[in-house]
Amino acid sequence: MLLELRSPSTQIDTPWTAEIPLHLRYLSPAEGGYSSINVPSPSVFWACNTEEGTKFPNSPFDRTNLGYDGLFGPRTLFWHVTPETQDGNLNHQIRVPVLDLNKSKWVSTGTAAMVLMGFAYIVFKLASVSWRRGYGSHKAPVEVEKKKKQ
């Protein structure tokens, strides 16, 4: 996921944070409704456009268009932020909400009830059409061709 963030223009010299909500799906249910997951540190960088007169040296060891750098122009300079932690672990443990095992019985019961109600409704509608008109007892009306008079 590549995001473009702009710093607030009102206060330039003050620190600011950006919160990016993510949606997690299909985690295993747990007692109490919460589970812990490990999320790796994000890859953070600044991509700055250089001035027209700036010359970049061409190195035969540079490999371009291998990842996100292909999404930017040829005169883009990248500044990478290296994550630093006190314990050296680059994973963050996050507590996320999941299905509570104590309340999952109601979810299963409610889902089963809705499926049965939907099935009963479809059977009722099909049966009511069959009772009104019968199954295959009526033929479609045949149109009589009329000759056009000119």
UniProtKB/TrEMBL annotation:
The chain crosses the membrane at residues 106-124. InterPro entries: Pbn1, PIG-X/PBN1. Its main location: endoplasmic reticulum. Pathway: Glycolipid biosynthesis; glycosylphosphatidylinositol-anchor biosynthesis. It is a single-pass membrane protein; Single-pass type III membrane protein. The keyword Endoplasmic reticulum applies. GO terms for cellular component: endoplasmic reticulum membrane; glycosylphosphatidylinositol-mannosyltransferase I complex. It is found in: Endoplasmic reticulum membrane. One of its GO terms (biological process) is GPI anchor biosynthetic process. GO terms for molecular function: mannosyltransferase activity. Signal peptide: none annotated. It comes from the Eukaryota. Keywords: Endoplasmic reticulum, Glycoprotein, GPI-anchor biosynthesis, Membrane, Transmembrane, Transmembrane helix. Required for proper folding and/or the stability of a subset of proteins in the endoplasmic reticulum. Component of glycosylphosphatidylinositol-mannosyltransferase 1 which transfers the first of the 4 mannoses in the GPI-anchor precursors during GPI-anchor biosynthesis. Probably acts by stabilizing the mannosyltransferase GPI14. Belongs to the PIGX family. PANTHER family: PROTEIN PBN1. This is Protein PBN1. It comes from Xylaria bambusicola. The lineage of its organism: Eukaryota, Fungi, Dikarya, Ascomycota, Pezizomycotina.
